[in-house]
Amino acid sequence: MYEFIRGPMIWISFLIFIMGLIYQAFKFFSVTRKKEWIVIRLPFNPDQPPPKKWFQRIADGFFSLRKRTVWRTHPTMIVITSIFHVCLFITPLFLLGHNILLDEAWGISLWSFSEAFSDGLTWVVLLCGAIFLFRRIFVRKVRVITTVYDYVILLITAAPFLTGMFAYRQWFDYQTVIFLHILAGEVMFITVPFTKLGHMLFFFFYRFFIGSEYSFSRGTRTW
Length: 223
Ligand code: HEM
Ligand code: HEM
Hints:
By secondary structure, the protein is an all-alpha fold. The protein has helices spanning 2-6, 8-31, 54-68, 70-73, 75-93, 96-106, 115-138, 140-143, 148-169, 174-191, 199-209; strands spanning 33-34, 221-222. Helix 5 runs antiparallel to helix 7 and helix 9 (148-169) packs antiparallel against helix 10. One protoporphyrin IX containing FE (HEM) binds at residues 10, 91-92, 95, 97-98, 101, 118-119, 122, 160-161, 164-165, 167-168, 178, 181-182, 185-186, 188.
């Protein structure tokens, strides 16, 4: 069991992550269909501005969206969530420990940050995670829409960082901590496509393909 979790299960979980995202993308396109527009051509009016190009429409959508979402109501959350997500992706990708393992397994590796810098980024992720947690506990309007599921999602996201940080510092028994770290990483990979962590994909699908008050454009697909 121990060897399985530390070996083949890493690749199995990664495969589930990739295949799960591809499956969700297919499902999204199969349950939606192309929007049909009824175009009514009005008599030519020389004062009418020329129709906008697609990138102008997206830019317009983006700027008007700022007025309708947390961009306006809670700009600090936008800063925190942006920092959180950037660190969430770059820390494990450019982590020396991970790249050494990749090099040993496949002879490939990415460029790596210094260990101290990665450790700093790990703390940033954990700090932002703590802010999300306290917001859910103490801000009343967030608490009323929070269920146990939201806490579990936060835990799944923070666990690889928490256990990775413990391993780096050699806190507790290293073998146990690194085992828990690998397990936490695998749980994260497996759950992303099938839980609300799938927003990694659906954020872009909803904002670009489905027209709604939160989308960047008027959308090209409908349910
Ligand atoms: C599933 C396969 C994974 C393996 C085999 C693995 C392995 C490792 C190893 C060997 C270390 C170095 C520990 C040390 O310095 O002694 C480490 C650290 C770390 N891992 Fe992973 N890891 C995995 C998944 C993940 C995932 C999915 C994430 C986050 C999304 C993650 C985040 C981190 C972080 C942030 C650290 C360093 C923490 C610090 O320096 O403070 N790992 N990992
Ligand atoms: C490019 C991909 C992603 C995008 C565009 C994205 C976007 C977002 C957005 C817009 C929010 C809401 C922010 C807010 O409440 O202020 C959010 C929250 C969150 N995202 Fe992502 N996300 C992505 C990938 C991920 C991944 C891969 C994970 C973890 C594996 C993740 C974990 C979270 C968590 C834990 C929250 C906060 C939940 C809470 O409020 O309790 N995200 N994300």
